[in-house]
Amino acid sequence: MHDRVWSCIVSTPQTWTVGVTGATGYAGGEVCRLLAGHPQLRLAGVHAASSAGRRLGELQPHLWPYADLEVRPSGVEDLAGYDVVVLALPHGESAAIAAQLPADTLVIDCGADHRLDDPAAWARWYGSEHAGSWPYGLPELPGQREQLTGARRIAVPGCYPTSVTLAMAPALAAGLVENDVVVVAASGTSGAGKSAKTHLLGSEVMGSVSAYGVGGVHRHTPEMVQTLSRAAGAPVSVSFTPTLVPMSRGILATCSARLAPGTDAAAARAAYASAYADEPFVHLLPEGQWPTTAQVLGANTVAIQVAVDPDVGRLVVVAAVDNLTKGTGGAAIQCANLALGLPETTGLPLVGVAP
Ligand SMILES: NC(=O)C1=CN([C@@H]2O[C@H](COP(=O)(O)OP(=O)(O)OC[C@H]3O[C@@H](n4cnc5c(N)ncnc54)[C@H](OP(=O)(O)O)[C@@H]3O)[C@@H](O)[C@H]2O)C=CC1
Ligand SMILES: CC(=O)N[C@@H](CCC(=O)OP(=O)(O)O)C(=O)O
């Protein structure tokens, strides 16, 4: 009998129940997709707002293992009882719900509500009262993994800030560039969410690339300023221009900054190789290869390449992420793994589906 009990204890890994609210949307749907392959996190309930009462299979047909789950409302009483709650809601909707969940529930917010440290920055960019900041869910930032281990509240980064921070943090931390970063990033349309928007109609998007949020007005700018200033240990300014491209998933961020005196290509490459040597989800590509969004599709990875342009004295870094995977849903699972003491890569795809 003792043997049987013991073998049960050693062979049955612990599991945690997860409730996902916003499961009918793109980010929440990606969390559910990844949970389907996770050995220790079990999707136990799905929640939303206007979709409540319907079956998940009607709204997210690709999530067939969960097709029969009924979508439930997102009140605090509906979300009680899970070990982990993932909030994948429009920004401004998470904070009130999160504030009422038990302190020992692991709450992971894919929205923006708890990302910014500075209440004034929040008020300026989001126009509402700051709900307070939570540990920022980008474990690859120096010192951040320790903050996430065992945490019970985690703010998942925005999709653009993930790509840009991972692209520029090593150069800024090593003092290879001046603290003034220029970014032009291309995003697929899923970054804008599932609800229909005029500028996302097929006829508007197909066969055309367009800029938007030009002139320092995109709300991801303060988030990039926060992460990159932290990496540099000094204020960093960011000029950010997002563009919309006719594809569903993916972000390709092209970032550049003026070289600090003495920085050459070898020093730049060495800094990135050293920064990411032990990072399972960051792939510094072999010299001569450039990131594509296809190679990270569906994977919780970022592909990075770095070059020095000696004629203009600038460092150029290109990074590709899948906005729904490493850009949100995968990052949410990566953070949950850390918070729960699981190996960080558990249940997460490391290989994309290119072409
Ligand atoms: N799309 C992306 O690439 C990324 C998204 N994020 C963040 O993830 C969050 C969700 O984005 P995304 O999935 O794109 O958006 P979607 O529009 O695709 O989905 C929104 C979801 O939230 C639900 N919802 C809306 N209002 C409420 C409410 N008041 N209470 C409960 N549920 C509500 C919707 O349910 P219903 O079906 O009932 O309307 C739907 O499930 C946002 O904060 C976004 O910023 C972060 C990084 C990347
Ligand atoms: C293409 C597109 O519209 N992208 C969105 C990205 C928003 C996002 O997903 O980020 P949050 O998590 O901060 O909402 C945008 O530019 O607003």
TrEMBL record:
Q: Which reaction does it catalyse?
A: N-acetyl-L-glutamate 5-semialdehyde + phosphate + NADP(+) = N-acetyl-L-glutamyl 5-phosphate + NADPH + H(+)
Superkingdom = Bacteria
Domain Semialdehyde dehydrogenase NAD-binding residue range list: 17-149
Whether Lipoprotein counts among this entry's keywords is: no
Q: Where does the UniProt annotation locate this protein?
A: Cytoplasm
* GO cellular component terms listed in the entry, alphabetical order: cytoplasm
- Name one molecular function that GO assigns to this entry: N-acetyl-gamma-glutamyl-phosphate reductase activity
Q: EC no.?
A: 1.2.1.38
InterPro entries, A to Z: AGPR, AGPR_AS, AGPR_dimerisation_dom, AGPR_type-1, NAD(P)-bd_dom_sf, Semialdehyde_DH_NAD-bd
UniProtKB keywords: Amino-acid biosynthesis, Arginine biosynthesis, Cytoplasm, NADP, Oxidoreductase
Gene Ontology biological-process entries: L-arginine biosynthetic process
Active site at C159
Q: In which pathway does it act?
A: Amino-acid biosynthesis; L-arginine biosynthesis; N(2)-acetyl-L-ornithine from L-glutamate: step 3/4
Function, as annotated: Catalyzes the NADPH-dependent reduction of N-acetyl-5-glutamyl phosphate to yield N-acetyl-L-glutamate 5-semialdehyde.
Describe the family membership recorded for this protein in Swiss-Prot or TrEMBL.
Belongs to the NAGSA dehydrogenase family. Type 1 subfamily.
According to UniProt, the name of this protein is N-acetyl-gamma-glutamyl-phosphate reductase
Q: From which source organism is this entry?
A: Trujillonella endophytica
Its taxonomic path starts at: Bacteria, Bacillati, Actinomycetota, Actinomycetes, Geodermatophilales
